[in-house]
Design brief:
- The chain is about 40% helix and about 15% strand.
- With about 220 residues, the chain is α/β, with parallel strands linked by helices.
- α1 (about 20-35) packs across α2 (about 40-55), α1 (about 20-35) packs across α4 (about 70-80) and α2 runs antiparallel to α3 (about 60-65).
- The radius of gyration is 18 Å and the shape is elongated.
């Protein structure tokens, strides 16, 4: 899809499973924790921890018991480590094209401020962002109208596009506000897969990759 970009246009993005696969953050966090707890056998421990997760159990209970560390310590490490993650193909190229054409970039994401900020920095996106709304920082989560109105208040443009992956909550409010909504189809790796389509929450457009989006 082609999107005309100028000073009156903003492209606003969800973060997790939209700009990258969230499962990669989980893997990065588990590796970081395992390397802290067992420097000599990090890979063995990581493989075991990830298998516990894949079986639907809580690996932090196992780690807490085995290494005599608190759950709070493990959660702190999980949430505050600087992740090893990469953006989806086409994401950085699209964002750079938007900025080159003097468009605006926004982020609306649910999560903790430090965690989500570190993700954006690790993805190489932070420096391009004109407005970033993180639920912990503002006190409300999607689909709260407040999160989207804060973007409008900050960016003050006439044309908004919102890209997300969660068909249950991402598109309700931007559609109500008259934004163009674009859904990224699950590539099969989403932590929270969604297939909830109805007139209220379906995006106006669907893409499988950001390589399908061109800033013109």
């Amino acid at each position: 899809m082609d999107i005309k970009i100028d000073t009156s246009t903003a492209l606003v993005f969800d973060l997790d499973d939209t700009l990258y696969n969230e499962i990669d953050y989980l893997k990065s966090a588990y590796w970081h924790i395992c390397s802290e707890l067992s420097e000599k056998e990090t890979e063995i421990l990581y493989n075991h921890v990830f298998s516990i997760y894949r079986n639907g159990d809580n690996p932090f209970l196992y780690l807490s018991d085995k290494y005599d560390v608190s759950i709070e310590y493990l959660l702190f490490q999980y949430r505050n480590h600087f992740p090893q993650i990469k953006p989806f193909p086409g994401v950085l190229e699209l964002i750079q094209d938007i900025k080159n054409k003097q468009g605006k970039i926004g982020i609306i994401t649910d999560g903790r401020t430090v965690t989500q900020s570190n993700k954006l920095k690790a993805l190489g996106i932070w420096k391009y962002i004109d407005c970033c709304i993180i639920s912990e920082s503002v006190g409300t989560e999607k689909p709260s109208k407040r999160n989207f109105k804060l973007v409008e208040k900050d960016l003050k443009v006439s044309n908004y596009y919102y890209f997300g992956d969660n068909f249950k909550k991402d598109f309700i409010t931007p559609a109500y506000l008259g934004w163009h909504t674009v859904g990224l189809i699950d590539n099969g790796l989403n932590i929270h897969p969604n297939s909830c389509f109805n007139a209220l929450n379906s995006p106006q457009s669907l893409i499988r990759s950001f390589k399908e989006v061109s800033a013109v």
